[in-house]
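Model the whole thing, not chain by chain.
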Amino acid sequence: MVLFVVVLVSAFLIVPVFISIIGSFSEYWGLRIFEKGLTLKWYAYVWENYSHTIKYSVIIAAATVAIDILLGVPAAYALSKARSRWAGALEDVISIPVAIPGIAIALALIQTHRYLSGSWLFIVVGHVVFTMPLMLRAVTAALRTAKLAVMEEAAASLGAGRRARLLRVVVPNVRDAIVAGALMVLTMSLGEFNLTFFLYTPLTMTMPVGLYESYASLRLEIGSAYTALFLLLTIPLMTLIQYLGSEKIEGRGF
Amino acid sequence: MAHLAMNRLTKQYTKSVYAVRELSLEVQKGETMVLVGPSGCGKTTTLRITAGLEVPTSGRVLFGDKDVTSLPPERRGVGMVFQNYALFANMTVAQNIAFGLEMRGASRDRIQRQVTSMMNMMGIAELAARKPAQLSGGQQQRVAFARALAIEPEYLLLDEPLTALDAKLRDNLRVELARLLKELNITALYVTHDLTEAMALGDRIAVMNDGRIQQCDTPRQIYHNPANAFVAGFIGRTNCYRGQLKPSHEGNGLAVDLGFAILPVPDDPGAREVVVIFRPEDLRIAAPQEKPHLVARITDVLFLGARIRGIGRLANEEEIIIDLENTANVRPGDNVGFCLYPGKIVVRSADGET
C-alpha cells in the first residue's frame, strides 16, 4: 500500500518530465507522439542555436557561487559572533529577498544598478541577491552548532590570529555546510528564470530563458530537447547534493 | 617578584553586576595556584582575563614585570586547557598538538620531534592519526594537555579540566596531573569547583566568593585555619555558630558565649560579635566525670565504615555534626555531652560571615 502511494507520487512528479524528454526524439508530435518517426535533429538544433546559453548559465552560476562564498562566509561568521539584537534583525532582513517575487527584485535592481544593464554581471548581481540568504542560513547554522567559539579560543591561546583562526579552524569545521550551500546556490542560479528574464539581453541569455524562448516561439519538440540537455547538466549536481546531505546524516561529519 | 600577578582586577558587566572585584593575586614561579569557589564566584572570569580571552574593566595582569593586560590571547603565549577540551574537530591528534608550533613558525623537523615527545609524555602516541570524535573523553583531555604543553608555555591555565570526565577517570587523571605539574615545574593557574581537586593539586588555594578572594593559602592552612565562615563552610563540613567574645572564667583566656554554652577559644579575632567554627572530627564524647562543652540530642546516626557520623540538635535547635570512632555507642534520641579538642576551634569576626 505504502509502496503504491510512493510509486504514484513519484510518477506524478516525474512522468511529465519523462514524457517531455521522450517527445524530444519525435520528428513531429501530432495526434500521436511518434507519428513521423524518431530523430535527433532537435538536439542538433538546440546545440547550434542555444549552446551560448549554457556558457552564460555556467559562468553566471560559477560567479554567483564564488561571490556567495567570498562574501557570505565572512558575513555569516560576523553574524554568528555578533551578540546584539541588531544582528538577529539583520539576519531576518537578509532573508527578505527569498520572500519577494523575482520580478519585484528584478525591477528594484534595474532601478538601482542601471549602469550594469546589458552586462552578464547584472544577472550575477540578481542571482547573488536571490541566493545569498540561503548561503548565509546554511553557514550561520553550522557556525552556531559546531563548538567553534571555544575552538577559536583554544586556537587564540595557541597563537593563532584572527585570519589563521578563520582559515585553519572556522572554515574547515563548517566546510560541509559551505559546500552544501554552494551546490544549492549553483542549482538555484542555473534554474533561475523570474529575475533573469528581466535582466538578460539576447547576448547574455541563460538556459532557462532560452528554454522559455524556445517553447514560446518555436516547436514543442525543440523545447523538449532543450529540457533534456538542461537535466543533463543539473541532475549530476542534484545527485551530488543528495550524496553530501546523506553523508552528513550518517555522522561522518568529522 | 611574582611570576604571575593580578593587580586589583575588576570585571563589571552592568552597574551592579560584577564577575570579579578588586582581585589581587600573586603566583610564584613553578607554583600551582588553584582558584576554587562556587559557580558564579568569578574564578573562571579571572582565568579568562589571565588568558586574554576577556578584558578587565580595570586592574592589571602582569607576567613577571611585563604588563599584558591589553595583549590579545594569541600574543600571550600561555598554554590553556579547557573544560570541554576544545580540540580542533577538523584535525588529527598530531595536527592538534602541532598547531601552536605551526603558528610560531617552528621548523617541520622541530614540530615533528615536539609532537612525538608530547604524545609519548601523555601516553597517546598510538592515537596520532585519529580525529577528536574518535577519542574517549579521557583521551581527548590528554590531547588537550599535550596541545597546550607543546608550545612550552611559561604559564599553564586550566579551566576545570577534569570536570567533564567520569569519577573514576577523574581520580586517575588527577594523580597523573599532580605529578605532571610538579615535574614540569610550570606556573599554573587551575580553576575548579571541586575541593578534593583543589586540595590535591594546589600548592596554594585561593577560595573565591562573590568576585573576591576570601582566603589564599596552602591547603593545610585553609583547612585548619579558615579565614572566615564562608571558607570553612566551603572547604568541608563544619559546625559554625554565632556568639559573643568574653573573658574566660577559667584562667586568663578567652571564651565565646553561644547563649546556651560557653566555649574556650585560643585566639582573639579582634571583634565582639564572632562565629566559632569547628569540624565534625574536632569533637569527642565527654568522659563521665568531665564537664562537656556542648550537649546535643542525637537525631541521626550514620555508620560510614571508618567512622560514625552523628547528627544532633543543640539547645537552641541548631544542627551539629560529629564524627566519632566507629566503636562509639550513640543512638538516636540520646543526649550526649561533647568536648572539643583543644586548639581545634577557630574564631572569626562575624562581619566576614556570608
